[in-house]
């Protein structure tokens, strides 16, 4: 082996002197990012968010797109703040209606997309909680959230988030799932997700991560998704770990927006809720979900 050592070292030195071109700050494509999710909830603000992608090395908020003309089925959305375009109060979408999004940027570029609302897919009758432990995996406490209801026979896809006293989880802590475990079945106490308490997360994101107390109201919000939008959201969790999404340029991300250099999705979703008021934050897991124990 010793007689080969000088040869191996020479190969290593040659390899280490090979020229490597690092990506420069400006070496990326400038894409329009469209975040347009409309629902059938008249109490939910219907918004279209427009921004730009930024370089991987850019450590500030992505620039917002101002002065665009945004409309859905010829209804013009007004710019309420930079890059945020808002429908009139009370506007909501309806099942069976096709929706057409049009975006015209100040420099003259045009973009468009089409969407329709999928079937709700699930009848949500109620939710309940049970204490599942504490001081594990870096969390201070953990609760299990279970659901009751009925799933339809159609294949369904869902986006699920939790709120405490009206303060909801940020995008990166929400959940995407299909109904393969309960398709076309009555659902009784299915443990669909968890509620975590972390002081670190509470300071960063708000009271959605607070320590549960008697009188707190836990709300589960679910949206039914069409398959393309489900795949798009799933791709965000696989392709990027930065917040907000698309801060570094993503790879192989699907889109239904038509136009040049564009990312994002236009979706129309039915939305449904269920809430429960906390009685005893430390109610044991098995006592509520498995009362026969």
Provide a concise account of the structure shown.
This protein has 4 helices and 16 strands. The strands form 3 sheets. The protein has an 8-stranded mixed sheet, with no helix packed on it. Strands 10, 11, 12, 14 and 16 form a 5-stranded antiparallel sheet that branches. Strands 8-9-13 form a 3-stranded antiparallel sheet. It has 2 domains: 32-118 and 228-270, no CATH class; 122-225 and 272-289, Immunoglobulins (Immunoglobulin-like, Sandwich), CATH 2.60.40.
Descriptive keywords:
293 residues, mainly beta, Immunoglobulin-like, 4 helices, 16 strands, 41% strand, disordered N terminus
What does this structure look like?
By secondary structure, this protein is mostly beta strands. It has two domains: 130 residues, no CATH class; 122 residues, Immunoglobulin-like, CATH 2.60.40. Helix content is 13%, strand content 41%. The strands form three sheets. The chain has an eight-stranded mixed beta sheet, with no helix packed on it. Strands 10, 11, 12, 14 and 16 form a five-stranded antiparallel beta sheet that branches. A three-stranded antiparallel beta sheet has the order 8-9-13. The N terminus is likely disordered.
């Amino acid at each position: 082996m010793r007689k080969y050592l000088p040869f191996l070292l020479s190969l290593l030195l040659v390899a280490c002197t090979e020229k490597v071109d690092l990506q420069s700050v400006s070496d990326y494509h400038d894409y329009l990012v469209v975040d347009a999710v409309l629902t059938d909830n008249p109490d939910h603000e219907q918004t279209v968010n427009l921004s730009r992608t930024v370089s991987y090395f850019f450590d500030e908020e992505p620039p917002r797109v101002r002065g665009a003309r945004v409309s859905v089925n010829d209804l013009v959305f007004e710019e309420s703040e930079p890059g945020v375009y808002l429908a009139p109060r009370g506007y909501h979408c309806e099942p069976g209606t096709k929706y057409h999004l049009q975006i015209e940027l100040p420099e003259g570029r045009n973009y468009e997309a089409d969407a329709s609302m999928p079937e709700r897919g699930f009848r949500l009758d109620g939710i309940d909680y049970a204490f599942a432990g504490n001081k594990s995996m870096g969390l201070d406490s953990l609760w299990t959230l279970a659901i009751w209801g009925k799933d339809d026979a159609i294949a369904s896809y869902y986006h699920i988030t939790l709120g405490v006293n009206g303060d909801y989880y940020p995008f990166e802590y929400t959940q995407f799932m299909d109904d393969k475990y309960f398709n076309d079945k009555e659902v009784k106490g299915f443990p669909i997700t968890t509620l975590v308490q972390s002081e670190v997360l509470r300071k960063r994101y708000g009271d959605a991560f607070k320590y549960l107390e008697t009188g707190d109201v836990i709300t589960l919000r679910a949206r039914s998704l069409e398959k393309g939008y489900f795949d798009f959201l799933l791709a965000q969790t696989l392709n990027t770990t930065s917040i907000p999404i698309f801060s570094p340029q993503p790879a192989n991300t699907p889109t239904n927006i038509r136009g040049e250099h564009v990312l994002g999705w236009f979706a129309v979703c039915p939305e449904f809720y269920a809430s429960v008021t906390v009685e005893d934050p430390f109610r044991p897991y098995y006592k509520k979900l498995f009362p026969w124990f």
